[in-house]
Structure formats: C-alpha cells, structure tokens
Design brief:
By secondary structure, this protein is an alpha/beta fold. The chain has two domains: 121 residues, Alpha-Beta Complex (Aspartate Aminotransferase, domain 1), CATH 3.90.1150.10; 231 residues, Type I PLP-dependent aspartate aminotransferase-like (Major domain) (Aspartate Aminotransferase, domain 2, 3-Layer(aba) Sandwich). The protein is built from 14 helices and 14 strands. The strands form three sheets. The chain has a seven-stranded mixed sheet, with helices on both faces. Strands 10-11-14-13 form a four-stranded antiparallel sheet, with helices on one face.
Length: 386
C-alpha cells in the first residue's frame, strides 16, 4: 500500500541518518536563543548582520502595518502593488547599481521565476554543480537543456559553451555557495558570457549586505557591471526581513515582470514588509562596523579551530563549514554540541554530495568573540584535539 511504502521510506531516512528534525524557537532570532525549552547559543541563522531582531526594523514594520494594514490583498499585477513597493524596488536597484529591480516574495520564487522566463525549450543552461536547489529547480522548470559543470570549473564551462548550438544561453551560479562558503569566479564567468553571447544570472543570497563596499554585494566587490548580468538578492538573510529581488537592465526586468510566473500568480508581499526593508537598507549601507566585527569573528574562528580528522573548508564568508564526511558522525557531533548548549546544524545529502556531511557554522555580527571561542573550544575537544 502507498502509506506502508511511505512509512518504510521514512524509516529508511532514519536508518541512514538523513531524517530532518524541525526545532521551535521561543525567542526572536539571535545567537542567544531558547529552543524547544532549552537555552542555546546558536550558530544556525543567515542573519549575518544581526538585523532580524533589530529594534529599528521592528518599529518600521509596526509603522508599516499601521500605515498599510496586514496584507496586500491581491497579486502585484492586479491590485496588490503599492507605492512603497515601488520605492523599495527603486532603492534596491540603486543600491546594487542596476537600472531596475523587481521584488519577489522569496528567493526560491525569484530563481524559479527568472530562469524559465529567460530560456526554454531548445535553449541551454550552464549551471555550477553546487548551485542552490532553487536554481536547479528553476532550470528544470524551464525545459531548457541543462549542462552542469564541476564546481567553479571555468575551463569545462568554456568547452560546454563553445560546443553549444543553442539559440539562447544562460550561465547560472551562486555567488557565495551556501554549504561551502566559497565565492564563485564571477569575473571569469562574465568574460565567458560576453564571449559566447550568454546571460549570466548570479544568486547573491549570501553576499548581499555582507560583501562589497557598504554591503552592495558580490558583483560590486568584483567591480562587475553588464546588461548581461541578472542579480538576485535575498532579503531574509543579511537584510533581516523577508523576500528577494532581481535587478538588471530595465527592459530585461520588464520582461521578467511580464513572464515570471511566481511573480504574476501569487499574492503580493505585505507592504509593511517593504517599510521594514527600506529601514534595513539604510542600516546595511551604514553597517561597516557590523561587517568589520563579522570579519574579525571569521578570522578568530579560523585561528582558534585546530582540527586533525575533520576539515575546515576554505571560506572568507560567514559560512564556515566543518567537513566530517559520514552522516552518522556528523549527526553525533551536532548532538554532542547540542548537549553542551551549542546549536550547529548537521548538513547531509541531498543538500550536500554523498560522503561530505558537515557542520554548517554560520557566524553573525550579533555573536561575540567569547561565543566564537566557546564553539571552537567545544569542536576541538570533540575531535580529540583540545
């Protein structure tokens, strides 16, 4: 029976240490949290600048709700688009140096909307093998031919582009890879896009607000600009609120507004969120002190950690993965940390390739040096190298 098979499949996930567990926070997002009734020091969130519980954003959200109400009432192209949405999109476009921006309710919706709007049957997508699941799903939804090149391997990508006869080509990459923390070779990718007449879509979910001057993102850090570029920024990570946007040349964004199904066929985000995001953008722009503190914590963690069997992957970003390998061992280490009051997620397949289970340590500007030393010490002890 169908239900019996489903129960057996669930049991198999448990046996292979692949079953996911959802925990419930009882406090606002932040390093010091109460989770499932326990006081924990958390290294889980993508709230890189510590803005999710920032009083300024809370006040802006409250004022937005008082001004605009709780919901938008309809999709953006019917009657659910408000003047504050226009203000936010204009501000986002200017912030990342593009002509125009279009907001989506989530980053997943942005990626699954933008990719199929740009390419379809008979076209070709060239995607980094470690791209986020939303980019993979967007590629599959497009029905274009999908070519996945080895992680950051621009030589293989060049060969694939050179042998492609597709009318339209799209290169798709994360900027900061969410489970490895490394940064894509963006300048080389744009060079290939120009040589082979391709679009380049960059998902800067984990770079927006953190990288580049004033947190303007990975493309600004690399000094890149082109009409071929489509920039995806996520607003629920460093920005501390919710949503996402795509930015680029004005006509390209207009086309996306006309064709991106997750934008067209969903209720618009509450306008109060746009008020909070406008306040967030101001804090990001003025947030050099937060970024300096975050950078110092990254350096401290990498200095304090002394591993022999496990591997701290190379990363200059707030994502600091500790590669363990075996699923069961990764779970055991995460459970041991939990018992010590440290909340660090164990990441296993299919999120990462088989044999590369890891702890995904996420540092934020809301952490202290003491917090980071506590985690590094616990990891050193658990690995047997105190």
């Amino acid at each position: 029976m169908l239900l019996d098979q489903l129960k057996a499949d669930l049991a198999e996930l448990e046996t292979r240490s692949l079953k996911r567990v959802r925990r419930s926070l009882e406090t606002p997002c932040g390093p010091h949290a109460r989770v499932d009734g326990r006081e924990m020091l958390a290294f889980c969130s993508n709230d890189y600048l510590g803005l999710a519980a920032e009083p300024t954003l809370v006040a802006a959200l409250q004022a937005g709700a008082e001004r605009w109400g709780a919901g938008s009432g309809a999709s953006h192209l019917v009657s659910g688009h408000y003047s504050v949405h226009d203000e936010l999109e204009a501000r986002l476009a200017a912030f990342v140096g593009c002509e125009r921006a279009l907001c989506f309710s989530t980053g997943f919706m942005a990626n699954t909307g933008v990719v199929p709007a740009l390419v379809g049957r008979g076209d070709a997508i060239f995607a980094d093998r470690l791209n986020h699941a939303s980019l993979v799903d967007g590629a599959l939804l497009s029905r274009a031919d999908l070519h996945r090149y080895p992680h950051a391997d621009t030589a293989t990508l060049e060969r694939l582009l050179a042998t492609s006869g597709a009318k339209r080509k799209l290169i798709v990459t994360d900027s900061v890879f969410s489970m490895d923390g490394d940064v894509a070779p963006l300048a080389a990718l744009l060079d290939l896009a120009e040589r082979f007449d391709a679009w380049l879509l960059v998902d800067d979910a984990h770079g927006f607000g953190v990288l580049g001057p004033q947190g303007r993102g990975a493309l600004a850090e690399a000094g890149l600009a082109s009409w071929r570029l489509l920039y995806i920024g996520t607003l629920g990570k460093a920005a501390g609120v919710s949503g996402a946007f795509v930015a680029g040349e004005a006509d390209v964004v207009e086309w996306l507004m006309q064709k991106a199904r997750p934008y067209i066929f969903t209720t618009g985000a509450p306008p109060a969120l746009a008020e909070a995001l406008l306040a967030s953008l101001a804090l990001i722009e003025a947030g050099d002190a937060r970024r300096r503190h975050l950078a110092s914590l990254i350096d401290l963690f990498r200095t304090e950690l002394r591993l022999a069997r496990w591997t701290l992957l190379p990363s200059r970003t707030p994502i600091q993965p500790v590669l363990i390998g075996d699923n069961a061992e990764a779970m055991a280490v995460a459970c041991a940390l939990w018992d010590e009051g440290l909340w660090v997620p164990a990441i296993r397949p299919p999120t990462v390739p088989h044999g590369t289970a890891r702890l995904r340590v996420s540092l934020t500007a809301a952490h202290s040096a003491h917090d980071v030393r506590r985690l590094a010490s616990a990891l050193n002890t658990l690995e047997g190298n105190p």
